[in-house]
Amino acid sequence: MNAAIEKATGRIGWRIAIVLGSGLNDVARSLLPAEPISFSDIEDMPTSGVEGHEGALYAGDLADVPALIFAGRVHLYEGHPPAAVTHAVRSAVEAGCETVILTNAAGAINEGLKVGAPCLISDHINLTGSNPLSGPHDGAGPRFLDLTEVYDSGLRTAARSVDPDLSEGVYAGLSGPTYETPAEVRMLRTLGADLVGMSTVHEAIVARYLGARVLGISVPTNPAAGISAAPLSHEEVARAGREAGTRLEAILRGVVEGLG
């Protein structure tokens, strides 16, 4: 996997990886105005067919830090297994990335969260029905991984130093592709979730398994089902993600500068 990233970028020694969720492609172009590398041109890299996910890698120096930015991801609901869903993150860590920043678009269960305002992920609940570490142990990390702190407290502190108004919440990861029913949202609230989406949890687990620090940032793009009378749509999600881009870009840039 390391060789695939090296071959595609022509470089080694990457330090940070950023994965961008639905509607956030413009953030990649602003942070790293480099020529994008299509996922289809990277050996073994799964390609996404979901609107709002460009499916391209941006590689270069961000605040003098060698950075890989994945504009888009693949999902379980597309029919991909967990190994494919986590392929980009695993490739990035094996290429040298010690820090992984995962972003996503999410439904806001906590009514105190503002649509369009980025929110730090403090913890997650994996309700996808699968785990990317299931199966034979490959020896790259511990067989039984401690997930006491999946999302690094130091990185969350660094993000708040850039944007003191950042909220924080627990993210529930479901498999999709349907949005949650109002009854499911009430269940998730009872379980302690503030946000809900269809990604991130598997990537975070694999990044921690491989020893990387993880920062998770959700962009609430809509109130979760039953909280608002308006029907949910992917178009709404992508639009809200794009509108949150400027603030998210500032947070990402500031955190990376702190790592330099």
SSE topology sketch:
Blueprint: H1 2-9, E1 16-20, H2 25-31, E2 37-38, E3 56-62, E4 65-71, H3 82-85, H4 87-94, E5 99-108, E6 119-126, H5 153-162, E7 167-173, H6 182-191, E8 195-197, H7 201-209, E9 213-223, H8 234-243, H9 245-259
Parallel strand pairs: 1-4, 1-5, 5-9, 6-7, 7-8
Antiparallel strand pairs: 2-3, 3-4, 5-8, 6-9
Helix pairs in contact: 2-9, 4-7, 5-9
Question: Could you name the key traits of this structure?
Answer:
alpha/beta, 5-stranded mixed beta barrel, 9 strands, globular
Strand order of the largest sheet: 5-8-7-6-9
H/E topology pattern: HEHEEEHHEEHEHEHEHH
Taking all Cα atoms into account, the compactness measure Rg is 17 Å
For the residues shown, what is the average pLDDT? Answer: 91
Report helical residue fraction. Answer: 25-40%
Shape: globular
Count of DSSP-assigned helices: 9
Q: What is the percentage of strand-forming residues?
A: 15-25%
Flag low-confidence runs.
none
Distance between the ends: 25 Å
Number of strands: 9
Biggest sheet overview: 5 strands, mixed, barrel
- Please state the structural category: alpha/beta
Plain-language structure description:
The protein is of the alpha/beta class and 260 residues long. Helices cover 31% and strands 23% of the residues. It has helices spanning 2-9, 25-31, 82-85, 87-94, 153-162, 182-191, 201-209, 234-243, 245-259; strands at residues 16-20, 37-38, 56-62, 65-71, 99-108, 119-126, 167-173, 195-197, 213-223. The chain has a 5-stranded mixed β-barrel with strand order 5-8-7-6-9, surrounded by 4 helices. Strand 6 (119-126), helix 5 and strand 7 (167-173) form a beta-alpha-beta unit. Helix 2 packs across helix 9, helix 4 (87-94) runs parallel beside helix 7 (201-209) and helix 5 (153-162) crosses helix 9. It is globular. The two termini are 25 Å apart.
